[in-house]
Amino acid sequence: MAGKRVTLKDIAERTNYTINTVSRALKDKEDIALETRKKIQRLAKEMGYIENSVAGSLRSGYSKTIAVIVGDISNPHFGIIVKEIEKAARKHRYTIIVLNTEDREELEESAIRTALSKNVDGIIICPSQRSEDNIWFLQRTGVPFVLIGRRFKSIPEFDYVICDDEKGGYLATKYLLDTGHKRILFLNGPLHISSAEERYEGYKKALQEYGVPLDPQLVREPGLIQSETRHLIRSLIEEGVDFTGVFAFNDVIAWETIYMLQKLGYGVPKDYSVIGFDNINARIFSPSPLTSISNSKSKMSRRALDILLKKINESQAGKSGGYREVVDTRLVVRDSTRNSH
Amino acid sequence: MAGKRVTLKDIAERTNYTINTVSRALKDKEDIALETRKKIQRLAKEMGYIENSVAGSLRSGYSKTIAVIVGDISNPHFGIIVKEIEKAARKHRYTIIVLNTEDREELEESAIRTALSKNVDGIIICPSQRSEDNIWFLQRTGVPFVLIGRRFKSIPEFDYVICDDEKGGYLATKYLLDTGHKRILFLNGPLHISSAEERYEGYKKALQEYGVPLDPQLVREPGLIQSETRHLIRSLIEEGVDFTGVFAFNDVIAWETIYMLQKLGYGVPKDYSVIGFDNINARIFSPSPLTSISNSKSKMSRRALDILLKKINESQAGKSGGYREVVDTRLVVRDSTRNSH
DNA sequence: TTGTAAGCGTTATCAA
DNA sequence: TTGATAACGCTTACAA
């Protein structure tokens, strides 16, 4: 099949220019005569030339590629983020590599190594936060990166773009309290994740403001990748744990909660009010629309990319860093909650 | 920040071995003394060596990378497929690059070019099918590829893995007919996509079997990327178009349909029965579970990858091709349909 | 078991 | 405006 791939050399031989001239003509450089450029470009097209950017990047030192490293690409939240980053990157003629970590530390490390070994110009990563090690490692390499969605609050070296998780947690809890719920089950993500920890802060703050005591029994962590939400809800109900409101770490967990509550014969919002996080219904119009906390994924994605590109350019010059961005969150009320006053 | 990146040369200098020996030691080749290997590997780790696979692939001719090109990564269907391909690829120590086409022909072409320019060893692509050109172009390059989810039935050169779309369309329609629906709205994808066309065949076949005349008014194409499902449903209802069953091209469209029907005051499945396609509820347990056609995404993904790897290996040898795989579909009944007899 | 030499396809640099 | 040469970091082939 397929003859060997056409290279600059082939074009050079056919045109009697040098490889160098051909290279610059194809890059449309001004210092090559317009006519020469046209001629070479035409022939290149005719011969089916495809740039070998691998070879180019070996020489030039940059690849016009960035890596996007997330926990679970099949979670619509990350799906949307990846799509938005890709779209924004394309405008700047960057390509993205997507790597999945399943929020596992070893896979995260190997994802970072893979990205680096492919000479990416920068990395946008939603860190597993099982430890700081992988990110310190990344930091030491000097390759520009930006955290997205999670941060290390105490480490100023790690630039990030997150949403206002504490406010989100606060707004969700406050809304449930305002609508008459006192026993609010919080199905949180694992606490080593900053977003989980900060949403928890918001949860506690709201409870405190309303003088509702914190019941540790109502704070649970069903897991993000392999969710045990359904089992958890079932056993909570069977054990007769008392709650009427649910605040879930993300919409997927909220959906599962509603799914199981309905399966057990309860109505949402009739018997339980449920709030999610991520506002996926803004993109996917599903039945039984979910009350949720909206974090602008397109804004987060675009900001993360902008910052990354800035860091990439600055790092050629000299210093960089100090980017800390918190995108606003707000409550979007839909049909999974109701006023029980 | 960051000192310059460590290369084989640096390690060679520190150990007084040659670059070549270091290279082979790090690849753990048997022809290097075990002791030497250990010593070099230890030092490499100590010095923070990260392989430059770009340089390696330039020389070796393969990159251990495959490209996955899809229309919309934020659609959970593709999110799941990408995740499954990534997982399977990782086992074979392959990395994936993900590229979005938005089902647009120009973006598809540039996605293919980007993939090729990065020297991927192979491509798994869900073609936009706006024309055959891009795939013929890909074919001519000689780079191994496999279509996933869509096929060109009349072009035997293009290997594919799809699900049994016709059967899926047939099963969905038959089920609606069996449960008493005669007026079945088919919200299809655009007909230039093989899956849409073949599901339509199934739809027609079932109608025919049951002696129900085909009403063109009931066959619509709300669009896949920018879905106009909600507007469409609203206007159909307002125009008083008569139907009681809906078969949607995918679950996202089905969800939107139910969303809008409910918004207009109708019940699902009380007033309308709705069937989707993709069976996303097998992964995401959402409230109001959707009756859907199941196509095993993990099986499709794994088969596509297996075939691709086979083609990659065979293409080094000589011939390859002739892979045509149809994964079975089946009906999964949930709560969005009911027997109206 | 290790070393030497060449080369992958580009781009950078400097000379003409 | 174009050409000659070297170099990017690695792997291959072969020699020692």
TrEMBL record, chains A, B:
One Pfam family this sequence matches: LacI
Database matches in CDD domains: HTH_LacI, PBP1_LacI_sugar_binding-like
GO molecular function, one term: DNA-binding transcription factor activity
Residue ranges occupied by any HTH lacI-type domain in the UniProt entry: 6-60
Keyword Metal-binding: no
Alphabetical keyword list: DNA-binding, Transcription, Transcription regulation
Protein name per the record: LacI family DNA-binding transcriptional regulator
